[in-house]
C-alpha cells in the first residue's frame, strides 16, 4: 500500500461558507457578506467576481436579509460544530481544514486588541477537534477580507494591510498555536486576478489606474505577508508548518500544434507564478517579463526580495477539481471551470456546472508540482458539486460522488507510488455548504446532507449519504479498499 500510516484523511471547509452567525460574537462584516445568491447565471459566465460598487455594497449592508445572502447564514456551523465534528470523527477523519474569519478576531481589521468572543469560538472548535483526534489544518484567509478595509483603501492594494494581517496572524499563533500545527496563509492566492474583491478586498470602481496592476500589487503584498507570517510561525512554534495554497488549474494543449503548446506553456507560467514565489522564494524572470508586457510592475519595497527568499513555505497545498484545454483557435468550444472559462476537452465529461471531470489530471498535477518544487504536497480541496435527491425514506444515494472520489483516489495513490510526497487529503466539502461562486447549497459536495434549500428553508438536519459509509471504509483501510 502506497500511503504511509501518517497520511491524513479528512475534509475541508471555509468559515464564510459554513459558519453563518454573521452578526454574532462581535464579528465584523466581511466581503462574503455581500455575496448574493446567483442560481440562474449562465454557467459560461460563472465566476465569483461580482461587479460591486460602493453604492451596491452600502445597499447590501443596509439590508438584514439572510435569504438572498446565503453566506450570512451558512449551515450554522458556528452553533452546530459539535454535532458536525462528531460526524467527521465517525467517518474516521484525522484532519479537518477550516479557516479563521479575520473579522471574528478583528471586526474591522484595524483594532489593536482582538475580540475575545471570537477567540473563544475558535479555541472551542480546535479543542474539540483535538479531543476527537482530528488535526486542525487552518487557513488564515479564505475569501473573507474585512469589508471595512475594502471600503477604506481596497484592502490588499494598500501596503498597510500587511501589518494588520501580521497582527491578526500573531494573535492566531499566540492563542491557538498550542492546538494548531498546520497552517495555510491564503486560500487559492492566485485567485485574486480572477476575483479581486473576494480574495483581495478590491472594489474595482475605486481603483486608480489599471485593475490588473492593482491585482498584482495586492498579490505582491499577500506574498510578503505570507513570508512574514511564515517567519513568525517558525520563530514562535518551530515545529509547526506553513503551506501555500494554489488553485491547480492544469491546462492541456488542445492539439499538438506548436502554437497550442506555446499558449499552454504561457498559461502554465502564470499558473505556477504563486508557487514559484511562495515555495521557490523568487519571481521567475519570464513571468515578470510577461507581466511587464501587460504594463504590470511589481511594487518591491526594500527587504521584500530577501524576505521572500529566506522564508518560503514548508509545504504546498492545492485545490484540484478539473482541468481545461488551451487553443489558439478563437472558435474552440469553451466550458466553465473553477472561476475560469477555458477550452473544452473532447475527452472529458463535465458536471452540470460545466467543470470537466479528470482524475488522471490529479496525478499529472501532483507529479508536475513535486517535480518542480520537491516539497511535500497536501491536497486540501477536491470534490464534486452535484444536486442530490432525498428519498421518501430520508436517504441520499450518491453513486456519482463515490465514483468521482474513487477515480481520484486511484490516481492520487498512483502518484504517491511514483514517489510524490503527499501529507494528506481533505475533500471539499465533507458536509454540504454554501457554494463560493453561486452561493447555492444545491451544488452539494458533502458526504453529509444538510436539510436546507437554496433559500435557507429546511430543518438544517444532518443526514449521512451513501458516500459517508464509503469514505469511512476508505479511511479505515488507508485507501486500500476503494469499494
Ligand atoms: C475552491 C474554493 O476554489 O472551490 C472554495 O477554495 C469553493 O471556497 C470550492 O467552495 C468549490 O467552488 P464552488 O463555487 O462550487 O463552491
UniProtKB/TrEMBL annotation:
Keyword Transferase: no
Gene3D superfamilies in UniProt: Glycosidases
UniProt KW Hydrolase keyword: yes
Keyword terms: Glycosidase, Hydrolase
Enzyme Commission code: 3.2.1.86
One Pfam assignment: Glyco_hydro_1
Catalytic site positions: 381 (nucleophile)
Superkingdom of the source species: Bacteria
GO molecular function (one): 6-phospho-beta-glucosidase activity
InterPro entries, per the entry: GH (IPR017853), GH_1_N_CS (IPR033132), Glyco_hydro_1 (IPR001360), Glyco_hydro_1_AS (IPR018120)
Family of this protein: Belongs to the glycosyl hydrolase 1 family.
Protein name per its UniProtKB record: 6-phospho-beta-glucosidase
Organism field: Microbacterium paludicola
Amino acid at each position: 500500500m502506497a500511503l504511509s500510516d501518517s497520511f491524513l484523511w479528512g475534509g475541508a471547509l471555509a468559515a464564510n461558507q459554513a459558519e453563518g452567525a454573521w452578526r454574532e460574537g462581535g464579528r465584523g462584516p466581511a466581503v462574503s457578506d455581500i455575496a448574493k445568491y446567483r442560481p440562474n447565471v449562465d454557467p459560461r459566465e460563472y465566476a465569483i467576481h461580482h461587479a460591486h460598487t460602493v453604492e451596491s455594497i452600502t445597499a447590501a449592508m443596509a439590508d438584514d436579509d439572510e435569504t438572498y445572502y446565503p453566506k450570512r447564514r451558512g449551515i450554522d456551523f458556528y452553533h452546530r460544530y459539535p454535532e458536525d465534528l462528531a460526524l467527521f470523527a465517525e467517518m474516521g477523519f484525522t484532519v479537518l481544514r477550516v479557516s479563521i474569519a479575520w473579522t471574528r478576531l478583528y471586526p474591522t481589521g484595524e483594532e489593536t486588541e482582538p475580540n475575545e468572543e471570537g477567540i473563544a469560538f475558535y479555541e472551542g472548535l480546535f479543542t474539540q477537534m483535538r479531543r476527537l483526534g482530528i488535526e486542525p489544518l487552518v487557513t488564515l484567509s479564505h475569501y473573507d477580507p474585512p469589508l471595512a478595509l475594502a471600503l477604506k483603501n481596497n484592502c490588499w492594494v494598500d501596503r498597510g494591510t500587511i501589518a494588520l494581517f501580521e497582527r491578526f496572524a500573531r494573535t492566531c499563533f499566540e492563542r491557538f498555536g498550542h492546538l494548531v500545527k498546520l497552517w495555510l496563509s491564503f486560500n487559492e492566492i492566485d485567485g485574486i486576478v480572477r476575483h479581486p474583491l473576494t480574495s483581495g478586498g478590491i472594489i474595482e470602481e475605486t481603483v486608480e489606474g489599471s485593475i490588473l496592476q492593482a491585482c498584482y500589487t495586492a498579490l505582491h503584498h499577500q506574498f510578503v505577508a505570507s513570508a512574514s507570517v511564515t517567519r513568525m510561525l517558525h520563530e514562535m512554534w518551530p515545529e509547526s508548518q506553513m503551506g501555500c495554497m494554489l488553485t491547480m488549474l492544469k491546462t492541456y494543449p488542445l492539439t499538438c500544434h506548436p502554437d497550442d503548446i506555446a499558449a499552454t506553456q504561457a498559461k502554465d507560467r502564470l499558473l505556477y507564478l504563486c508557487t514559484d514565489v511562495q515555495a521557490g522564494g523568487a519571481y521567475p524572470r519570464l513571468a515578470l517579463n510577461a507581466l511587464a508586457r501587460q504594463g504590470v510592475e511589481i511594487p518591491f519595497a526594500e527587504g521584500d526580495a530577501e524576505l521572500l527568499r529566506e522564508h518560503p513555505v514548508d509545504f504546498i497545498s492545492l485545490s484540484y477539481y478539473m482541468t481545461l484545454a488551451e487553443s489558439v483557435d478563437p472558435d474552440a468550444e469553451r466550458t466553465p471551470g473553477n472561476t475560469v472559462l477555458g477550452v473544452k476537452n473532447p475527452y472529458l465529461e463535465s458536471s452540470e456546472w460545466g467543470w470537466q471531470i479528470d482524475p488522471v489530471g490529479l496525478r499529472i498535477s501532483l507529479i508536475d508540482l513535486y517535480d518542480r518544487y520537491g516539497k511535500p504536497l497536501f491536497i486540501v480541496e477536491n470534490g464534486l458539486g452535484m444536486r442530490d435527491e432525498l428519498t421518501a425514506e430520508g436517504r441520499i444515494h450518491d453513486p456519482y460522488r463515490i465514483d468521482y472520489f474513487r477515480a481520484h483516489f486511484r490516481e492520487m495513490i498512483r502518484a504517491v507510488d511514483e514517489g510524490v510526497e503527499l501529507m494528506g487529503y481533505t475533500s471539499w466539502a465533507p458536509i454540504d455548504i454554501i457554494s463560493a461562486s453561486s452561493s447555492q447549497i444545491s451544488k452539494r459536495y458533502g458526504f453529509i446532507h444538510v436539510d436546507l434549500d437554496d433559500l435557507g428553508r429546511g430543518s438544517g438536519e444532518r443526514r449521512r449519504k451513501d458516500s459517508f459509509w464509503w469514505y469511512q471504509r476508505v479511511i479505515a483501510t488507508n485507501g486500500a479498499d476503494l469499494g
